[in-house]
């Protein structure tokens, strides 16, 4: 008699046992269909054996074997199992998370035909230049004449869907379902010759990585914005692909980097697949399958692309490694950078972490000699350094957040036909609406949080729970119509600048203006065209764009960022500032950065401005060391929430007691809480947390592993929603 252990997609840590019929031959890491309660469920086999701890009459047989081969490579299987233990997350949830949706649903692991655009007979005999009044259509037809284009690659190739539809209406092209071509790219592999001559620093970095590109090595490529990091990735990849191996490139956000993706495509005569949010489930599975069969050379994707299987993975690149989007913020809270380093070690391949502003964790890993640092200090394209200055606004009257010296500077830069970028990390018109007569403030009842006024939609919106309500005409408390706004958001900044600079086009880039699909790309295109222009934006603007015509950058509200209750706030501000400053004067123009602050003497600002990000990081690491904070200690937070503000705190109190009573608890453990979360109420739930710090990762993990099975015995555990977060990034 044989038995299988199976994990299911359930949110709790449990393995289920089933009987194995004689003729069934499942495999570890493959899927089976099993009876589960009244229904059938998809499971992943984790073990096959000859004995069972469960009474035979309690066991049911599996219904079906879906895979004859494991869906996971050995290394991915090991990584995921390590992650299940490290993040204390249910095995089923983790393993299924790593699979494409269709496989989770039990669909076969094959590539279904995909939609493809192709030129019709009529299209083939049409010259693109006959469409010269419609440049987008011209571009799209030209592309189709070179070869058909899969629907999911339209946006990556920077073609317009509307243009394709227009061509289709004219009978010049059409859509068809096509089985993906599955040829071996290796015999035809070529590198395009248009590459740059590397400068000394780039050549040194490439040399170092290449020297050890057949074993595990973790490299921090610390290069200021525009220093040519992407060029280094491309050159390193040349070697890897020439050997017939594949590459995985992780980026924070796909939609922000069409130019970068284009550079990868142009450089190599090899299939590049991009995992972006516009893919449907079939297309996503097709990419997964191609990578696994070795049929594509490069996969570019965000966080979850880390779980793509590869036949011959040769390198991992993580661009903007400091970006917090690599950390999953709900459910299984893994960090893709950390798991990627683990994967590289398991696969015995190099990993390159590139950024202008390394995370403090990463710098610490360099200090501990776990990673090695390569530095690019010079801008590759232009040598003009940016001028950086603190604008002391103490006692100055501000017009909508703008000081007179800043306005004067803006005029100078705009007169020279350059672009100005204003950075304000608050979207909406104003962060509060209040009554002038009685002091009432419009507040979201579910979050106890001020509503943000969105003037354009005439709405109040809660930025915590996203609820919205129409703008009131009267105070809800005294009936007065004297409602006034307080504070400044990007929408108001835009409204205020329009009359001040009537002839200057203004582009606002925040979550509100870019919600519509394609909107961001449109804005970015307008900006690329050049000419005088004011850009207003939240931190979205700071990510990875190239704005060659921006010569003046200003951060309007520095003080809000440097005085914060979160110990990571300073690091985040410094990264943001450095990234934003790197956007000024990228081409051959002199750039300038101005920071408005009431605290120009603040040591953080002084260090950052005069000695740079790396020196700032060194000092901040020392402070963290003295305070016993990460990365010098390991950090785990337990969170709990309830609806009446009684249970969550109590639960965490009991949990704290449980930890305190554990024989594994030692004096080095630092417990804080239960304390209310930084946003103590959200969507009607009261949020509490218990923070654990320990100098030894191992000890802390042991304590938590031993204590977790007891949590369900706590009286309150069923009355609250609770979770734990290993290496949390936000509190
Ligand atoms: P990063 O990724 O560090 O921001 P990029 O690789 O995008 O930098 O390079 C910035 C700009 O400099 C690009 O326009 C790129 O083509 C150019 N560039 C990079 N390396 C060189 C080089 N060795 N010589 C000339 N131009 C270069
Ligand atoms: Zn009132
Ligand atoms: Zn709310």
Written overview of the protein:
By secondary structure, the chain is of the alpha/beta class. Helices cover 31% and strands 24% of the residues. It has 20 helices and 32 strands. Strands 11-12-10-13-14-9-15 form a seven-stranded parallel β-sheet, sandwiched between helices. Strands 16-28-27-17-26-25 form a six-stranded parallel β-sheet, sandwiched between helices. Strands 2-1-4-3-5 form a five-stranded antiparallel β-sheet. β19 and β20 form a beta hairpin. Adenosine-5'-diphosphate binds next to α8.
List the helices and strands and how they pair.
Blueprint: E1 2-8, E2 16-20, E3 31-36, E4 39-49, E5 64-65, H1 74-86, H2 91-97, H3 101-104, E6 114-119, H4 121-124, H5 135-146, E7 149-150, H6 161-169, E8 173-178, H7 200-211, E9 217-223, H8 229-242, E10 246-250, H9 258-267, E11 272-275, H10 281-293, E12 298-301, E13 313-319, H11 336-347, E14 350-355, H12 360-367, E15 372-376, E16 387-392, H13 404-415, E17 419-423, E18 432-435, E19 443-444, E20 449-450, E21 452-454, E22 459-461, E23 468-470, E24 483-486, H14 490-500, E25 506-509, H15 519-528, E26 533-537, E27 550-555, H16 558-562, H17 569-581, E28 592-597, H18 603-627, E29 634-642, H19 647-661, E30 670-682, E31 685-694, H20 697-711, E32 721-726
Helix pairs in contact: 1-11, 5-6, 7-8, 17-18
Residues 435, 437-438, 440, 475, 477-478, 480 line the site of one zinc ion (ZN).
